[in-house]
Amino acid sequence: ESSAHAITQNHINILAESHTLPTNLQNEVNRLSEQYQFFHWHLAFPEVSAHGGFDCMLGNPPWEMVQFQDSDFFSAYPEIIRQRTRAARQRAIAKLAKLEPDLYQTYLDSVRQVNSERHFLDNSGLYSLGIIGRVNLYKVMLESCWKNLTKDGRLGMVVPSGIAFDDF
């Protein structure tokens, strides 16, 4: 039996065929689903998918960059963010492994989550336009909503003017 953290494409195929996974893997799938709050338009709105998409979508997506910033994470820790160089900051962060292991683990988990989100956006094949240049969630949401419209559907989103003028 596989370890709880070794979910493979074969396991996904087994789930897609409506078969059951070993208990430890099913528990891991449930944990990840709860942690990441996966959302699938076609599952959430099956009647809309059957119709060919939405006739109208309106929204105000988050305007957040998909990149991890040590300075944001450690904003309450001046002894870390005041370091003059990146190398010095990394050394101060590494010291947390012994001094504050819970905080250090939370930091590692946060870095992993942002890197995983970026990896998904870059490699899922779902976002060919929204991932050009620095990735901001509003661009990803705009592309996702646009793809979920009917042929004659209308989309209204509150987004920065940079969507039309920025280099990327």
Characterization of this structure:
It is a single chain. Strands 1-2 form a two-stranded parallel sheet. It is flat and about 55 Å long. Helices cover 55% and strands 9% of the residues. The protein has 168 residues and is mostly helical.
Averaging pLDDT over every residue, what do you get?
Answer: 88
Q: Percent range for helical residues?
A: 40-55%
Task: Determine Rg (CA atoms, Å).
Answer: 20 Å
SS-based class: mainly alpha
**In angstroms, what separates the terminal alpha carbons?**
46 Å
SSE diagram, text form:
Elements: H1 9-16, H2 23-36, H3 41-44, H4 46-51, E1 54-59, H5 70-73, H6 78-81, H7 86-99, H8 101-123, H9 137-147, E2 149-157, H10 162-165
Parallel strand pairs: 1-2
Helix pairs in contact: 7-8
Keywords:
two-stranded parallel sheet, 10 helices, flat, 168 residues
Summarize the structure.
55% of the residues lie in helices and 9% in strands. The protein has 168 residues and is mostly helical.
